[in-house]
UniProtKB/TrEMBL annotation:
NCBIfam families assigned: nadC
Reactions this protein catalyses: nicotinate beta-D-ribonucleotide + CO2 + diphosphate = quinolinate + 5-phospho-alpha-D-ribose 1-diphosphate + 2 H(+)
GO molecular function: nicotinate-nucleotide diphosphorylase (carboxylating) activity
Protein family (similarity comment): Belongs to the NadC/ModD family.
UniProt entry tagged with the keyword rRNA-binding: no
Pathway: Cofactor biosynthesis; NAD(+) biosynthesis; nicotinate D-ribonucleotide from quinolinate: step 1/1
Keywords associated with the record: Glycosyltransferase, Pyridine nucleotide biosynthesis, Transferase
GO CC annotations, alphabetized: cytoplasm
GO BP annotations listed: NAD+ biosynthetic process; quinolinate catabolic process
Name of the protein in its database record: Nicotinate-nucleotide pyrophosphorylase [carboxylating]
Species name: Methanobrevibacter thaueri
Role this protein plays: Involved in the catabolism of quinolinic acid (QA).
Xref: InterPro entries: Aldolase_TIM (IPR013785), NadC (IPR004393), NadC/ModD (IPR027277), Nicotinate_pribotase-like_C (IPR036068), Quinolinate_PRibosylTase_N_sf (IPR037128), Quinolinate_PRibosylTrfase_C (IPR002638), Quinolinate_PRibosylTrfase_N (IPR022412)
Length: 274
């Protein structure tokens, strides 16, 4: 079993489920189901199946990963030991609801830009310990996961630049000390820095917390200099469903949104024993 899920179960169980042990007959076999009380995209169903099966609970998946769900939809049917199902209930629901919430938010953004050649991406602004589940849910929702961890690619941010003293110096150091197999991205906050980093071959240049007008100015200048093809252009910071189309119209390549994982609302599911 996944070590993170083991930890979640251990944290929830403490020294034992004293309520179930007190009122539920040992060895009692029951049927149960998980039902949606919400609308969105289903994510995490395979994770939950593995969890229940690990503990000997028979499970039937009623819907597949990534499908749209509505209120009242039957997601999973269960049969097994009542105490075991009650022990796993909260951990299973917490994961399934959160992952489905992240996937649902991701799907909403992906649908908004579906007619454009732009990629929506998550960030590493996830909940501690369950980042990989958040990242998986982003993929189910139809957006790019961005980096899973610090070793995925070089991403030179403001604090790295503060240490180096200059964006271009940081970029050149990265190009000198990084394998050809890793992409190099750099975060910039001005038109001048954006142009220099594109001119010097950064794989991706992130325009961080720039207004729509500032982004447009950068794109126009790169096009005027005919160096746009040198780098992908990513924008991040303050992008919402209300203003995202402005950035799409400017012609950026990637829009990364931390809110997909740090602020997504969990969907509402319920486990009921029949």
């Amino acid at each position: 079993m996944d070590k993170i899920i083991e930890y979640m179960l251990a944290e929830d169980e403490g020294f034992g489920d004293i309520t179930s042990n007190a009122v539920v007959e040992e060895g009692k076999i029951v049927n149960a189901s998980i039902v949606s009380k919400d609308e969105g995209i289903l994510a995490g169903i395979d994770v939950i199946r593995n969890l229940f099966e690990e503990y000997g609970v028979e499970i039937t998946l009623c819907l597949k990963e990534g499908v749209k769900i509505s209120k009242g939809d039957l997601l999973i049917s269960l049969r097994g030991d009542a105490r075991t199902i009650l022990l796993l209930e909260r951990t299973a629901l917490n994961l399934l609801m959160r992952m489905s919430g992240v996937a649902s938010a991701a799907s909403e953004y992906a649908d908004l830009v579906g007619d454009y050649d732009v990629r929506i991406a998550g960030t590493r602004k996830t909940s501690p310990a369950i980042a990989k589940f958040d990242k998986y849910a982003l993929g189910v929702g139809g957006v790019d996961t961005h980096r899973f961890s610090l070793d995925d690619m070089v991403l030179i941010k403001d604090n790295h630049i503060a240490v180096c003293g200059d964006p271009l110096e940081a970029l050149l150091k990265a190009k000198e000390n990084t394998s050809f197999s890793k992409k190099i991205e750099i975060e910039v906050e001005s038109l001048e820095d954006a142009v220099e980093c594109v001119r010097n071959g950064a794989d991706i240049v992130m325009l961080d917390n720039m207004s729509g007008d500032e982004v447009k100015e950068v794109i126009d200048e790169l096009n005027r200099l005919d160096i746009r093809q040198n780098s992908l252009i990513e924008v991040s910071g303050g992008i919402t469903k209300e203003n995202i189309m402005d950035y799409v119209e400017y012609g950026v390549d990637i829009i990364s949104i931390g809110a997909l994982t740090h602020s997504s609302r969990s969907l509402n599911f319920s486990l009921k024993i029949e």
